[in-house]
Structure prediction request, 270 residues.
Amino acid sequence: MPLNERQLAAFADKHAWKIPFDTSPRHLAGPGDARHVTHGLAAAGWNTVSDPLSAEIVLRSPDLRHSLQFDPQSATGAWWRLRSEPFADGPAWYAEFGELVPAEVLAALSDALISAPSQPADPWQPVTSAGWHRDSESTARSPDSMCRIELRQESQELPSWHIETSEPRGEFSGPRIWHAYLDEHTPPHLVAPFLTALADPSPLQRGMYERTAHYRAVQKPSPMRPQQVVDAHINRISSLRAQARSARRQQTKPATTPANTNPARPAARR
Prediction:
């Protein structure tokens, strides 16, 4: 079922009365509204294939290649699971994200599934530019040392991405707050926007008394008005719809062949 005006109105009704607070750092901002992710995919034509009366949501892409599962009853701590089937241009891959991952950060990755793949950028560059500490060529940690990114080589396979936000405990990490895992086949053009959004020093908007991931999250009254938060969501959805339509047109556009300026004439019958 495509995203409809009633669903957008429900989002607007929820956020129109919330006084937004700038909340940072992002890895401690809390989950936010899951519709930042689900609305974006639905606007691009992803279909709901789960039981509408279940707490679990499963969305599948129009080409049936990708699926996203949101399960708030998961016993593993991975509320979000993103899967891709093997295809002509690449192998299957899998990524999962914990309960308290900010929806806006995850949406940066899911939005990249909609647009045409871009030239892969160095995923470490925005992390370093944001002031994160590079402990080695394969690791980085946030300025408060509560979030750690690691490109981990676990076997003979390619390295996989492990992101973990944990309680501070001196030199060692304390109990985990949330995690993300992107396996070794996750396309680089999806990893890069996720890490870029995670390390972005600009705050996320959260309503008063809305859940954050940790008491160390800093909240200040935002210069944004509630309606501006709603408008930003609506504008993003409109942009994703346009991107999805453009991508579909490119996929269905017939290949053109150069015109033959000197067509061969049939031989004259004798």
Remarks:
- Confidence is low (pLDDT under 50) at residues 255-270.
- The longest strand covers residues 172-182.
- The two ends are 65 Å apart (CA to CA).
